[in-house]
Design goal:
The complex is a heterodimer of chains A (224) and B (420). Chain A is an alpha/beta fold. Chain A has 7 helices and 10 strands. Chain A has a 6-stranded mixed β-sheet. Chain A has a 4-stranded antiparallel β-sheet with strand order 2-1-4-5, covered by helices on one side. Classes of the chains: A alpha/beta (224), B alpha+beta (420).
């Protein structure tokens, strides 16, 4: 089994307002098809770590590998390409573009990547939406659907480019238990049916317990 | 690789869903450019009219014999007084004739020059207009009327009758409008004139001349060159003035100096003759430019404000676009293209509105005694101003869009998503 994501001795400091060592020597691996969760109290640095892993934050020391290729130090332009091709991201808040329709929101990252034709993208997007049981919402404006539906749209958007790994920053944090369970089931199905690797930051112990592996963090270090 | 289709479709969605701010921003450009076009067209139109009013009366170069004292008095020619302090009291002007010496050969020479559009002979003479027992002093100018029509705007100033009528009537006269009014004369009547020597001549009025400048209209009339020569009892080569029209006005000054040397004659160029007028004209131009630049800058700030607001509103969208794989440059292009769409749309509508308002002004009646040829406000439809207008709209929206969109390019998506 190969490794999707690997970090070697990642350190990060917040320089303002005072120097603060947020992440200390973070080294771990996520294997292909693994469903891992990161747990820890607030302020333990788990979200910070996730943003580094997602390549959005580049201000750190250490090395980050994606598909066994060194990512650290690449220019921003290349990072956005890597991000759109290999990484899907789901946030605590859905962050959909409210002026666009659900379908357009899902299609956008694929249009940007531009490796498929418009028809293919539309077909894929509908497929993802149907898989998440929200196909009937495709033509609605993103601002007109419910919170749970929005989070599923966000997942569909994260999946549109068939990424190698799906990252979530408390994807269920803002949902009621029914919708949270729904999202968990979706993640599980993605892992089992599509062999997708998942790395989810969460507060929710029940959620974490049901994943393959829990990475526990405290004060910027990995405990287990 | 830049995917223009995606970028433009996002820009379009942003513009269409925020129709209100899009329209406001475009209107800012529209009003700025529209007001600029209207103002510049109207003001330069007025300036042109005033320039023409004065400048068209004056030929580019005017040649004549000046009555003046000799520069070198006879005493300075006498060697024995060399080095002494010579003082001559009550110097009188040199005895010379008013006519230009060798006028006909000079005319021929001028007409062969490459940059001369034309040269017309004139004979200016002091005469009296007789109305019963009353004598009115004035000038009678003998002209080659058809050449004058070709080279100057005299035709515009003939408010009754026609230049052809003068050419066809040997003893015809184009009477100054002020004179016609004073003497209650009209086209078809006869007017008696008397030369300084006392010869009385009847002339038939074939037209009324009105320059718009009362001092001229009250004294000056035109007749055929040959008629005036005959009245004065002078031969056909008796010409007192030569007016020269050039193709290029800038060459007037050096050419006047050259002619002075070549023919030993006084030659004044147009700038010399209208020095103060030029100052007034320059100041009006400066005012026009100052006002129009102010208008354009105000429009530019309006665009900047609205685009800044738009980008702050879209902060979250920017973060999302970046998180889903759009680069900073893509985000910048999205906002830049919105700015440019606003600029182009607002600018083009501005040009159209400016044109429409110019047309309206152009049709407002503006009748004044001083300007016989003008019945509505003058407007200058120089396409150059329209090009400047649209170019400025594009440049200002580019700058106004560049600054905030550059900020959008640099935004760190993590900071927005985490809300810090």
């Amino acid at each position: 089994m190969g490794t999707v994501l690997e970090t070697k001795n990642i350190n990060k400091h917040f320089k303002k307002p005072i120097d603060f060592h947020v992440l200390k020597d973070i080294s771990f691996k996520v294997k292909d098809g693994e469903f891992a969760s990161i747990m820890g109290k607030s302020g333990s640095g788990k979200s910070t770590l996730l943003y580094i892993l997602s390549t959005m934050d580049t201000d750190y020391e250490g090395e980050l590998f994606l598909n066994e290729e060194l990512i650290t130090g690449k220019p921003h332009k290349e990072l956005s390409k890597i991000r759109s091709r290999h990484i899907g991201f789901v946030f605590q808040f859905h962050y959909l573009l409210s002026e666009f329709s659900v379908l357009e929101n899902v299609m956008l990252p694929a249009k940007k990547l531009g490796s498929k034709t418009y028809q293919e993208i539309e077909h894929d997007a509908m497929e993802k939406l149907n898989m998440l049981n929200i196909g009937q919402l495709a033509k609605k404006r993103a601002s007109r659907i419910s919170g749970g539906e929005k989070q599923r749209v966000a997942i569909a958007r994260a999946l549109i480019n068939n990424p190698d790994i799906l990252m979530g920053d408390e994807p269920t944090g803002n949902l009621d238990s029914y919708n949270a369970e729904n999202v968990f089931q979706i993640f599980k199905r993605l892992k089992e049916e599509e062999g997708l690797s998942l790395l989810v930051v969460t507060h929710d112990l029940d959620f974490a317990k049901r994943t393959d592996r829990i990475i526990e963090m405290e004060d910027g270090r990995i405990l287990s | 690789m830049t995917n223009w289709k995606v970028i433009l479709s996002i820009a379009r969605t942003h513009l269409l869903t925020k129709m209100k701010s899009t329209v406001t921003a475009s209107l800012g450009v529209t009003f700025g450019i529209g007001a600029y076009i209207t103002l510049v067209s109207f003001m330069t139109g007025l300036n042109h009219m005033l320039d023409d009013l004065v400048l068209n009366q004056t030929p580019h170069i005017h040649m004549y014999n000046e009555i003046e004292p000799s520069a070198a008095q006879p005493i300075s020619l006498y060697e024995k007084f060399d080095g002494g302090l010579n003082k001559v009291h009550s110097i009188k002007p040199k005895q010379s004739q008013l006519k230009i010496h060798n006028a006909l050969p000079i005319l021929h020479y001028l007409k062969d020059q490459k940059n001369v559009k034309g040269a017309t002979p004139q004979l200016r003479s002091q005469i009296f207009y007789l109305s019963g027992s009353i004598e009115l002093g004035g000038n009678l100018v003998g002209v080659d009327i058809m050449e004058e029509v070709r080279l100057s705007n005299i035709q515009d100033n003939i408010i009754e009758g026609s230049p052809e009528a003068l050419r066809n009537t040997e003893n015809g006269i184009l009477l100054g409008s002020g004179l016609a009014k004073k003497m209650s004369l009209n086209v078809g009547n006869r007017v008696q004139i008397s030369t300084i020597k006392g010869t009385v001549f009847p002339l038939k009025i074939v037209g009324i001349y009105q320059s718009g400048i009362a001092e001229i209209d009250n004294v000056q009339s035109f007749a055929n060159l040959k008629t005036v020569q005959r009245i004065l009892g002078e031969p056909e080569n008796y010409i007192t003035d030569i007016n020269i029209k050039l193709y290029d006005l800038a060459k007037a000054e050096p050419m006047a100096r050259l002619l002075e040397k070549q023919f030993k004659i006084k030659a004044t160029d147009i700038n010399e003759a209208n020095a103060q007028f030029e100052t007034g004209s320059n100041i009006r131009n400066i005012i026009t430019y100052a006002v129009s630049i102010t208008l354009l800058i105000v429009a530019g700030f309006g665009i900047y404000n609205i685009l800044s607001m738009l980008i702050y509103e879209k902060m979250k969208d920017i973060a999302i676009l970046k998180a889903t794989g759009f680069s900073g440059k893509d985000v910048q292009l999205i906002f830049m293209s919105q700015a440019m769409i606003i600029g182009v749309a607002g600018g083009v509508i501005g040009l159209i509105i400016g044109f429409i308002i110019s047309r309206i002004i152009d049709n407002i009646p503006f009748e004044t005694q001083a300007l016989p040829t003008i019945s509505t406000f003058p407007v200058n439809y120089n396409p150059g101003y329209y090009i400047i207008g649209i170019v400025f709209a594009l440049i200002s929206t580019f700058i106004a869009g560049y600054l905030p969109s550059n900020k959008a390019r640099k935004i760190d998506p993590v900071r927005i998503i985490r809300g810090t």
